[in-house]
């Protein structure tokens, strides 16, 4: 038993180390000037707007409508995807309210890296054989790997949506009011600009305060402009906000569901026999989708170096700092807040998730799907999402707060191998109920 545990822990550690090394290659590339910040931003946008939609369409579409798929079993995954950020906020808000933690600890606690890191980690775990007991071996392994990846992608889509809707408000908790800088429709502009910038990484051209010179309806097609101008302001803001949430990954998910559920389309795209598109169109999409997690993690390394280097070379703009809504506590990390976030992300939430899943399994409340069990345990684990830096910038936080966030992300990604312990715990729980 102890030998088996040690082997599993070693395999998990090796997998997490491979993820960290992939990230470090991007950091080194930025440090050596091989990849400029502008190029890294373009590559990040390429990942989100091309590679991720291709992955979502081919991965989800091949499972939706399959004989062994059952969407009714996904309700625990969807419910937990919404619940665990709220639980993290419930744990952390008293710290911000009464212990004067920095306000950015709220989104740092709620929104973990839900896309490239877990996908790349799972790929590495499959390669080392650590998941053989729950994913299967031989011909069944690829199907299990795809299903596990789909579960993680569903969580990633929900996490991104929550980030766009809740993130800006969390960073303003406790801050003093800074006059109205936005014209009508301004709330929607913030979310629209934040959506594009967060998806693409740090956008150096983005003005975090969104000056009044930007047209309030710049992102709206000109044909719809007269119609929107006649609407009441609250309704117009709502429509603009909803429009800002429409993005290529969401479109890919919708198309995957449509194609997967319609028999002749599913046959044309995803069946090897009698398929017209599978051998060339679907295969080409699979090829570009397969590089998403690796390239995205590489870009995360580039962005981490960019954020760290800015903390060393940039001096705070006194005028901007005076106008910013930063609280003094937001400009430093602090040992206690950092310890809390590390404990929450690598200790408290994994233990909480493991306990909940164990109880549900003991009461036979979950479907007989060990990959679903594994996902439910690990999806609340890991470092804060890299988009926290873009969120901080576009929410109008000053240079001091942005530098603190950059240092926080660097520390968290450096200790990413700690995720190996929750992974081992998740595997052992799954094996217990097999």
UniProtKB/TrEMBL annotation:
<protein>
    <recommendedName>
        <fullName>Auxin efflux carrier</fullName>
    </recommendedName>
</protein>
<dbReference type="GO" id="GO:0016020">
    <property type="term" value="C:membrane"/>
</dbReference>
<keyword id="KW-0472">Membrane</keyword>
<feature type="transmembrane region" description="Helical">
    <location>
        <begin position="250"/>
        <end position="269"/>
    </location>
</feature>
<dbReference type="GO" id="GO:0005783">
    <property type="term" value="C:endoplasmic reticulum"/>
</dbReference>
<feature type="transmembrane region" description="Helical">
    <location>
        <begin position="74"/>
        <end position="96"/>
    </location>
</feature>
<feature type="transmembrane region" description="Helical">
    <location>
        <begin position="338"/>
        <end position="360"/>
    </location>
</feature>
<keyword id="KW-1133">Transmembrane helix</keyword>
<feature type="transmembrane region" description="Helical">
    <location>
        <begin position="404"/>
        <end position="427"/>
    </location>
</feature>
<dbReference type="InterPro" id="IPR004776">
    <property type="entry name" value="Mem_transp_PIN-like"/>
</dbReference>
<dbReference type="GO" id="GO:0055085">
    <property type="term" value="P:transmembrane transport"/>
</dbReference>
<feature type="transmembrane region" description="Helical">
    <location>
        <begin position="116"/>
        <end position="138"/>
    </location>
</feature>
<feature type="transmembrane region" description="Helical">
    <location>
        <begin position="372"/>
        <end position="392"/>
    </location>
</feature>
<feature type="transmembrane region" description="Helical">
    <location>
        <begin position="42"/>
        <end position="62"/>
    </location>
</feature>
<feature type="transmembrane region" description="Helical">
    <location>
        <begin position="150"/>
        <end position="171"/>
    </location>
</feature>
<keyword id="KW-0812">Transmembrane</keyword>
<dbReference type="Pfam" id="PF03547">
    <property type="entry name" value="Mem_trans"/>
</dbReference>
């Amino acid at each position: 038993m102890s030998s088996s545990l040690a082997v599993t822990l070693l395999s998990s550690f090796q997998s997490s180390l491979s993820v960290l090394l992939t990230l470090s290659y991007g950091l080194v590339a930025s440090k050596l000037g091989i990849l400029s910040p502008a190029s890294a931003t373009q590559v990040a946008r390429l990942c989100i707007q091309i590679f991720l939609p291709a992955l979502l369409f081919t991965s989800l579409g091949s499972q939706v409508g399959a004989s062994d798929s059952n969407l009714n079993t996904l309700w625990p995954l969807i419910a937990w995807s919404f619940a665990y950020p709220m639980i993290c906020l419930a744990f952390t808000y008293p710290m911000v309210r009464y212990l004067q933690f920095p306000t950015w600890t709220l989104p740092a606690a709620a929104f973990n890296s839900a896309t490239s890191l877990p996908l790349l980690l799972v790929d590495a775990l499959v390669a080392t054989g650590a998941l053989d007991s729950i994913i299967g071996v031989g011909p069944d392994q690829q199907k299990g790997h795809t299903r596990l990846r789909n579960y993680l992608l569903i969580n990633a889509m929900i996490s991104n949506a929550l980030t766009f809707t809740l993130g800006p408000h969390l960073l303003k908790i406790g801050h003093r009011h800074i006059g109205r800088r936005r014209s009508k429709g301004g709330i929607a502009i913030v979310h629209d600009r934040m959506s594009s910038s967060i998806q693409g990484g740090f956008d150096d051209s983005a003005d975090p305060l969104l000056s009044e010179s930007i047209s309030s309806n710049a992102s709206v097609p000109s044909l719809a402009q007269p119609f929107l101008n006649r609407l009441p302001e609250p309704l117009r803001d709502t429509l603009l906000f909803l429009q800002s949430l429409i993005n290529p990954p969401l479109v890919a998910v919708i198309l995957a569901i449509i194609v997967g559920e319609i028999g002749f389309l599913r046959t044309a795209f995803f069946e090897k026999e009698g398929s017209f598109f599978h051998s060339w169109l679907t295969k080409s999409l699979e090829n570009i989708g397969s590089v998403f997690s690796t390239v995205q993690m590489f870009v995360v390394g580039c962005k981490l170096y960019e954020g760290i280097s800015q903390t060393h070379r940039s001096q705070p703009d006194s005028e901007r700092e005076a106008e910013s809504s930063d609280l003094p506590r937001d400009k430093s990390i602090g040992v206690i807040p950092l310890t809390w976030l590390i404990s929450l992300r690598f200790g408290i939430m994994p233990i909480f998730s493991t306990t909940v899943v164990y109880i549900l399994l003991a009461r036979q409340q979950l479907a007989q799907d060990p990959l679903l069990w594994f996902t439910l345990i690990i999806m609340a684990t890991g470092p804060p999402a890299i988009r926290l830096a873009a969120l901080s910038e576009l929410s109008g936080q000053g240079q001091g707060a942005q530098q603190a966030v950059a240092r926080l992300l660097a520390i968290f990604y450096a200790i990413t191998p700690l995720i190996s312990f929750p992974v081992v715990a998740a595997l052992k729980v799954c094996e217990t109920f097999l």
